[in-house]
Amino acid sequence: MFMKNSNSISGKLVDPIGRRTVNAKIYFQDGVITQIDESLDAENVYIIPGFVDSHVHIESSLLVPTRFAQAAIKNGTVAVVADPHEVANVAGIEGVRFMIENARQSKLKFFFGAPSCVPASPVDECFEPFTSREVAKLLDLPEVTHLAEMMNFPGVINGNTEVHSILSEAKARNKPIDGHAPGLSGENLTKYVSAGITTDHECFTLEEAKKKIELGMKVLIREGSAAKNFDALHPIIGQNPSMAMFCTDDCHPDELMGGHINKHVRKAIALGYDIFDVLQVASVNPVNHYRLNVGLLQVGQPADFIVVDNLNDFNVLSTYIKGVNVTNFEEDYAVKPPLFSFPNHFDHQKIKLDFPSGKPVKVIKVIEGELITETLKTSVPGSGYDFDKDILKIVVLSRYNPNNIGVGLINGFGMRKGAIAASIAHDSHHIVAIGANDDSIVRAIDYIIESRGGICYYDGNETMGLALPFFGLMTNVDVSDAAKEYSLINKKLKADGCKLHAPFMTMAFMSLSVIPHLKLTPAGLFDVDRFSLTSIFAE
After folding, report:
1. Which residue of 36, 164, 295, 533 is most buried, as measured by CB atoms within 10 A?
2. Mind giving me the DSSP string for 97-149?
3. Count of domains for the chain
């Protein structure tokens, strides 16, 4: 075991700033590195900067922040840049404050963004719309380091007054502005970047990423549960490491248990990238870009670092935050109920699903590993279901007005029986369900309503579910318990025929009207490219 005491640690120091590896003994006091002595005798372990997730929605882990931290710390993460716009949509400013207060109980360093698009677009619903006034209040909080992703790219490009007022609040405080511009190019991209937007995590191709980098944007290489862009974007690590960061964006508990940003690092090293370029992307860039109070193994900085066994596998032996070994601080993660009470706006209601027949229709076509969808134009039976073509029915029931129900068709899930449902549907978080028959869809939705939020799979006989009592988005159970329950549901669903790697995460994005190309809202089918509702009948 490597030598350590309360104020020092010895090992092979991997210095991301000096870009060198040396035998060293690091001294720290009151959470700050006070001295680094280069020594000829050091333990055969590696001391490297802790990893930073540069963009994550904690709510997508299905865990409150303190429970999320349990898994992240064990994987060598010392800080996350979090966008709480999921809870902001369903609980307003009080929801964001809950996330901040809960995060304060954790050893993990949380840095929050002020949600910029609540609701995500003018056609979406939410508990309480955010204007520049609400955004300004959040930007003034010390825990809020930036303006979170500006998803309303049409508003930016077309000069929407309120959108630009929100951008101005961030600029006035000299806080970075995160972007969200999937597929944007040409003059529209130039307009978007010129508005002061500095990052994008929605690149799907290397060409798209390079164009954005040329305009000065930093590209976040995303590897989450549903959206996986590492394989397409990793050449940036070698070509332009100063302009890249790693992020997960959305990551369910089962995947979080298996790794966090350390998975990005392992993959990059396995591909032969230089260790210092990889650490620049994994640690240095997010710390510098967001001006985080996170140490990078330099004298005078916070003692935030991890100890790993080697520079190939990156097995985390210890995680230090503010000079404290927090690897096994499970007892500090007791989650207290929120100090306020906030109802989930689910009203029990049976729904009747009718689908007109006789004309070719537009079907949402899912793409594995992506959040974007395509439009499939075909004909279907009057029921709407066609198993030979893998066409199922999708339903979105408004969380805020249960009389608003959108019904559409979807391809790519591979289910032949039962239905799945969830109270997680980005970003408004309506109830969304996909199934092989109307009765199963109704039963799955009823389970969500009766549970006041969660995810479930009804297989035609019984229901498997995970309750999410915090705003219908999160649970406070131990991360291992949440991961186990989620994995069991997922395993059963796949055994019954579902073809997707992350069906619940994929379903959660089928109602998000700011990611191309075809989505379903409670108001009906939505053409993201035209940014308007569209008929289900093919033109």
Report:
1. 295
2. HHHHHHHHTSSSEEEEEEPS-SSSSTT---SS---HHHHHHHHTSTTEEEEEE
3. 2
- Final residue of a structural domain among 242, 266, 293: 293
Cα(334)–Cα(478) distance, rounded to whole angstroms? 9
| Predicted TM-score of the model (pTM) | 0.91
Residue 502 CA to residue 366 CA, distance in Å, equals 12
Q: Are residues 122 and 229 in the same domain?
A: yes
Residues 212 and 118 in one domain: yes
Same domain, 271 and 412: no
Amino acid at 236: I
Distance CA(117)–CA(443), nearest Å, equals 33
Would you say residue 77 has pLDDT above 70? yes
- Kindly state whether residues 281 and 383 are assigned to the same domain: no
Percent share of the chain, pLDDT over 90: 80
Q: String of b and e for 117-153 (b: at least 16 CB within 10 Å)? A: bbbbbebbbbbbebebebbbebbeeebbbbbbbbbbb
* Measured distance CA(397)–CA(407) in Å, rounded: 9
Residues 78 and 172 in one domain: yes
CA-based nearest residue to 309, from 65, 43, 72: 43
Is the confidence at residue 373, as pLDDT, over 80?
yes
Domain assignment present for residue 399? The answer is: yes
Q: Print the domain residue range for 466.
A: 361-533
Indicate the Cα dihedral angle 423, 426, 432, 433, nearest 10°.
-110
Report d(CA 387, CA 269) in Å as an integer: 43
Q: Same domain, yes or no, for 371 and 490? A: yes
Give the pLDDT confidence score for residue 118 in this predicted structure.
96
Task: Select from 235, 258, 293 the last residue of a domain.
Answer: 293
- Domain contains 299: no
Among positive and negative, which fits the CA dihedral 495, 497, 501, 505? negative
CATH number of the domain to which 63 belongs: 3.20.20.140
The larger pLDDT score, comparing residue 2 to residue 86, is at 86
Beta bridge partners of 457: 420, 464
Task: Look at the alpha carbons of 209, 210, 212, 218 in this order and tell me if their dihedral is positive or negative.
Answer: positive
Query: Phi then psi for 468, rounded to 5 degrees?
Result: -130, 80
Q: Smallest Cα–Cα separation from 66: which of 111, 103, 110, 112?
A: 103
As a 3-state breakdown, the chain gives helix, strand, coil percent values, each rounded to 5, of 30, 25, 40
- 354 occurs within a structural domain: no
**Residue 336 maps to a domain:** no
